[in-house]
Amino acid sequence: MLILHSSSHSLQVPFFLFIIITVYTMLPFQMSYAVTLSIISFLSHIIVLSVYLTVGGLPPKLTSHHITNQLLSNAVVFVCGSMVGAFHKVLMEKALMQTFQDTLRCLGIRMKLEIEKRQQENLLQSVLPVYISMKMKLAIMERCKCKDKEEQQRLVRDNNFHSLYVKRHENVSILYADIVGFTRLASDCSPKELVIMLNELFGKFDQIAKENECMRIKILGDCYYCVSGLPVSLPNHAKNCVKMGLDMCEAIKQVREATGVDINMRVGVHSGNVLCGVIGLRKWQFDVWSHDVTLANHMESGGLPGRVHITEATLKHLNKAYEVEEGNGHLRDPYLKELNVKTYLVIDPRSKDSSLMAPNMRASVRMTRFLESWGAVKPFAHLQSREEFSTDAMVNGKGRCKFCVCLCVCRQWVKSEEISGLTLWFTKRDLEKQYRTIEMPSFKYYIGCATFIFLCIFIIQMLYSVYNCILALIACGVFLRVSLELKVTFLFIVSTISYIIIFYSQENLFSSYSCLLMLCKAGLMKHPQLMSCIYITLFLFTMLLISRQNEYCCRQDFLLKNKNLADKEEVELCENLNRLLLENVLPAHVAALFVGENKKNEDLYYKSYDCVCVMFASVPDFKEFYTECDINKEGLECLRLLNEIIADFDELLSKPKFSGVEKIKTIGSTYMAAAGLSGPPEQSSQRQNAQIGNMVEFAIALIGKLDGINRHSFNTFRLRVGINHGPVIAGVIGARKPQYDIWGNTVNVASRMESTGELGKIQVTEETSDVLQKLGYSCECRGLINVKGKGELKTFFVCTDSSKQQGIGLS
């Protein structure tokens, strides 16, 4: 090694090299500033040393050629250190930027997740009580998480029965209300007027129900029924229902007086016990079942317009809060007469006689304009204020940006519970295994930079053996994503070899050099062995610190990406769950209008169809089968069988051939469905006829399903089906519990086809029979029958056996 007179130029190299490495790796400078400072640092060393030697003269035995070589060697060391530092800084800034973007994306995902969860809760709670919706939500999430079909089949095998979400409640009051004269009024309405009218009326009733602590159960056409005492028991449940009935009558009275339209309210109330919950797999609707519910229904049909009709059981709970008079319900309803139920009519303290007005406007127009003044909330109004956000909006928000920056910076120094403080290994083995198997796309750049360093070592190795070791230590720092254990091992091996060279292999050389230095001046700088060890140790611990921090940052980034992925999967799960929930309330083509980026829920949804095939299928024998005793848990086990029947019916809707069939709702043991709602309102006659044939096939499939249930449950249930086709109006009504429904003469006649039909048969109208015969079905004429509200109609029975023989039936 060459020796310089006075203080050695080479002994200053480690200090300047350390400054350069520190500027790039430890100080928070931008790249341009870091490059500028590093250049200033090593140029100042080269220039000052050159000037000093030029002015002061060359030391003895040294030529300008020797000095030039040494200065060039110093420059190579500095350039090499600067290149390593710049490379390290570029990779770290790139990683930090990626972390910032990932953090921003993670925040966006979490915000979206919270919004999805809130929407999910609002959606479920608008249809179902909380205690039921949470159970159903957990069950759906479990099914959604089972991506493997075998796992899903295992879950099905473990459950011999479909899940039943039904609970018994005692001491409740049930109210049934029907709008008298509404059918006649509805026939004069346009689709928009009908949906507005129903939404305003039932929106008002929902408001009254909320004020009187009642829970609306369901809307059946123009029939509205609710219960007080659910889901939390209330001591004044009877008073609540009676008060609500009186308020409903008063509301209709205001409509009648303001518009001159002759409509009224008939209300029936009974107190007792109910089974409440949800049955089936599709189109969930909270419902109640029991003999007391049936009695309340007959109290309405046996009541009087404008009056609240109550049973003696309800009267006992009123504690003389209202005056009553004899109801004589047994004279108007055979069911009440059969059970010998004593009934009463509540006297409304506000009741006054009023005469009808007769304005010149059409009745439906007067009615609609008046009801709109009530301002009922639109269905799914709570979804209209959906929070919108985007990545741009988040980036433009300075507060969020600062939060993200702080999060990224703090993340590097705050201890993570998922990472070991000593080894930096993940506490979860699978996470550690996953981290160690990730690809390193920048590895080729690591090798390139390391090759450059060792090339520099080769250039100057004859001059600086100690600095070669330091450069080798620095070279380890460019391998950002290489295992920390491997880097630590390499650092200690290189350092150990250097110590051996200094103290053993080249001891004579260092001793001679030390003696020559001591002739100039005594001091620590004149002990090259000790100083070389200090330099190597300093850079060893510096690179250990940098490597450890790099490893920690890389693992934190990996952890963040895993959490982002988990959050993304949870968001997707919530989105799928929301879609399933909404499609279980509304048909898929309607649900798309209420959620998503292109939602159009500013107005009420309504649509008029030229031809829709409507089916009612009931199990009349179930009424006799249903009993309430200790053996069947007060009717709960009977409902379990009904749930199996409805669920099996719902499963048929999953078949591709029945994709055009839409379940509307269930009414007790009656199943209502329609075909032709998903397509455009105006369709070709060929497509309309195909939908009618498809509905008959669905009815035949229902009969087959029920036969299968009979074989397994040893019952003799038989299905009674009524089908009709024609124009209908579809819409979504109800503010607190939005409900999709269809209305029109077609629906009413289809219902009558079922109620006047025969067990095990499909009854259709003459018009529907003509279409079916064109499709190849055989129909048997039943003749003229008396249909309530329609007079005498000629009806037909579809010959299901012959349709199967012709190959049209179920495959």
TrEMBL record:
PANTHER family listed in its UniProt record: ADENYLATE CYCLASE TYPE 1, ADENYLATE CYCLASE TYPE 7
Domain Guanylate cyclase residues, every copy: 173-300, 613-754
GO cellular component: plasma membrane
Protein name: Adenylate cyclase type 7
Catalyzed reaction equations: ATP = 3',5'-cyclic AMP + diphosphate
Transmembrane helix in keyword set: yes
Spans traversing the lipid bilayer: 6-27, 34-55, 67-87, 443-464, 470-503, 524-546
Record's subcellular location: Membrane
The protein's required cofactors: Mn(2+); Mg(2+)
GO BP: any one term: adenylate cyclase-inhibiting G protein-coupled receptor signaling pathway
Topology versus the membrane: Multi-pass membrane protein
GO molecular-function terms, A-Z: adenylate cyclase activity; ATP binding; metal ion binding
Gene from which this protein is expressed: LOC107551487
Domain of life: Eukaryota
Keywords: ATP-binding, cAMP biosynthesis, Glycoprotein, Lyase, Magnesium, Manganese, Membrane, Metal-binding, Nucleotide-binding, Repeat, Transmembrane, Transmembrane helix
Its EC number(s): 4.6.1.1
Record family assignment: Belongs to the adenylyl cyclase class-4/guanylyl cyclase family.
